[in-house]
Amino acid sequence: MGEKNTKSLKIIITGANGQLGRCLQDVAERYPDYEFKFKSSKELDITSKEQINSLFAHEKFDYCINCAAYTAVDKAETDQENAFLVNAEAVKYLSEACKTENTTLIHISTDFVFDGSKTTPYTEEDVPNPINVYGASKLKGEQYVQNILEHYFIIRTSWVYSEYGHNFVKTMLRLGAEKEELSVVNDQIGAPTYAGDLAEVIMKVISSKATNYGLYHYSNEGAISWYDFAKAIFEIKGMNIEVNPIPSEAYPTPAKRPINSELFKHKIEKIFPKNIKFWMDSLHKCI
Ligand SMILES: NC(=O)c1ccc[n+]([C@@H]2O[C@H](COP(=O)([O-])OP(=O)(O)OC[C@H]3O[C@@H](n4cnc5c(N)ncnc54)[C@H](OP(=O)(O)O)[C@@H]3O)[C@@H](O)[C@H]2O)c1
């Protein structure tokens, strides 16, 4: 006779080796009552409908946290097909499997669904208008989730960093070790998000068994520029690097970025109060 499974919830995590996936692996240790199935891109390719359907048919999941994404924002401009395949079509396959198997989907999206022309923080009611391929593909993914599912949480976040993978903090630390002076854009405003904080909030959503399904904005608290962020990174590390502020035009990239990326977070704060940490505190923690 097989051992009886005493775990109260079963959760599948896609894209488990990315920044958020790795942070969820760390946070999962604090939830011994739950059974976590972490699937890397090699173990589960979400662009394969067959792989998704066969997995969901064999195992019953209470929640699916979709951390898999095509996140190479600049590359997406010339690789539109793959960006849409991962960020939109694959999200449709996941949503359909979740619908059939009665699994709640927690899907992560981005501030890049907005064009950045608003002068105040973006609310969940603001109309998206992406200005790059990545943003357009993520918006299409959101729309699939909303059209297919009732039991879902879409969490839009911004400027994600962590001790894992590729991100701005790690890039600055690498460049700071090579150079004494750096130029960083100071006219794009937003809030960094430590992936460890986002992972904790996701687990709060699950453990509270919240049924306030829908779309939410989440980032760390505060509004800064990339220039401010870079200066803080070097300050915390005690690195003496001269950081020069420059406008976006002086640092052209294949994908346009929104000037204003700030997300209004009152909706998530109402349901999960005191969970939004100040960006500088989280940066200290990560570094
Ligand atoms: N990073 C940011 O600044 C940022 C900002 C706003 C929102 N977001 C959103 O936040 C979420 C998490 O982002 P992150 O920073 O953790 O991303 P990440 O570090 O780039 O991780 C993404 C993961 O997805 C995996 N993946 C790619 N294609 C896949 C496929 N076909 N099947 C399964 N897995 C696949 C990748 O695996 P491989 O490495 O093997 O390809 C990688 O492990 C994403 O939805 C992203 O759009 C991120």
Automatic annotation (TrEMBL):
- In terms of superkingdom, the source organism counts as Bacteria
Kindly state which reaction or reactions the protein catalyses: dTDP-beta-L-rhamnose + NADP(+) = dTDP-4-dehydro-beta-L-rhamnose + NADPH + H(+)
User: Does the keyword section mention Mitochondrion?
Assistant: no
Q: Which CDD domains match?
A: dTDP_HR_like_SDR_e
A GO BP term here is: dTDP-rhamnose biosynthetic process
**Which major enzyme category is it?**
oxidoreductase
Q: Which GO terms describe its molecular function?
A: dTDP-4-dehydrorhamnose reductase activity
Annotated InterPro entries: dTDP_dehydrorham_reduct (IPR005913), NAD(P)-bd_dom_sf (IPR036291), RmlD-like-bd (IPR029903)
GO cellular component: a single term? cytosol
Signal sequence residues: none
Q: Which residues form the RmlD-like substrate binding domain?
A: 10-287
Q: What is its EC number?
A: 1.1.1.133
Regarding protein family, the annotation reads:
Belongs to the dTDP-4-dehydrorhamnose reductase family.
Looking up PANTHER family in the UniProt record yields:
DTDP-4-DEHYDRORHAMNOSE REDUCTASE (PTHR10491), METHIONINE ADENOSYLTRANSFERASE 2 SUBUNIT BETA (PTHR10491:SF4)
Q: What biological function has been recorded for the protein in this entry?
A: Catalyzes the reduction of dTDP-6-deoxy-L-lyxo-4-hexulose to yield dTDP-L-rhamnose.
Protein name (database record): dTDP-4-dehydrorhamnose reductase
Which species does the entry assign this protein to?
Arenibacter nanhaiticus
